[in-house]
Amino acid sequence: MTHQLPPLPFSANDLAPAISSVTVGYHYGKHHQAYVNNLNNLIGGTPYENTPLETIIAKAPAGPIFNNAAQVFNHTFYFQQFKSQHEAKKRPENELLRAIEKSFGTFDKFIDDFSKAAATVFGSGWAWLIREHDGNLAITQESNAGCPLAKKQTPILTCDVWEHAYYLDYQNKRPDYIKAFWEVVDWKVIERRFNV
Ligand code: MN
Predict the structure, then answer these.
(1) What is the pLDDT of residues 36-61, one digit of tens each?
(2) Most buried of the four, 6, 74, 91, 168, by CB within 10 Å?
(3) Dist. CA 98 → ligand 1 center (Å)
(4) 21-79: what fold?
């Protein structure tokens, strides 16, 4: 089994001005592709050959195979949640909205809390909305290739805060990227993930 770079659910230009086509070009076309290529090269002749991505992430020890497998998953999860500013559903409804209100008070408070978590990841990493074993939603921070699947948490939403995700568009202003990020998150996708 060879791992593949999945197609984007939008055109490279669709996320501008929140995320420019140049950033999509490098982030998806170079970084995400490189994680896929590295993973395929690393697993050849190992027990992880012909193994689904999620199983590699759950089983591989810390090291290059885990890092590249987790980064393939994390980036696919990240890119699949976006639509153009005009097409993206801007707020969750029904069960997901109720779960967010239960865990965070209000939707706006959740946006605040998640944005703060993303802004304060030290160095490269990810902010996540996850479902815990008890069914409750929580916000987590992960460094580098950290991935909720490795902790048996269910990922719902993620924000990549590696500099390559925003530096071309926002330079050092990570909070500006995070603010714009919400413009292109499609809550229809997030609801679908939550309702699985
Ligand atoms: Mn990235």
Answers:
(1) 999 999 999 999 999 999 999 999 99
(2) 74
(3) 30
(4) Helix Hairpins (1.10.287)
